[in-house]
Amino acid sequence: MDAQRALLDELMGTARNLTDEENKGYREIRWDDKEVCAFYMVRFCPHDLFVNTRSDLGPCPRVHDQKLKESFEKSPRHDAYVPKFEAELAQFCEKLVMDLDRRVRRSRERLAQEVEPAPPAPLSAEKSEQLSVMEEKIKNLLEQVETLGEAGKVDEAEALMRKVEALNAEKTALAQQPQNGKVLMLAQEKKMALCEVCGSFLVANDAAERTQSHVTGKQHIGYGMVRDFISEFKEAKEKAREEENLSREKEAEERRKHREKEYESRRRSDSGDRDKYHDRDKDRDRYCERDLYRERS
Question: What stretch or stretches form a coiled coil here (predicted)?
Answer without folding.
Answer: 124-177
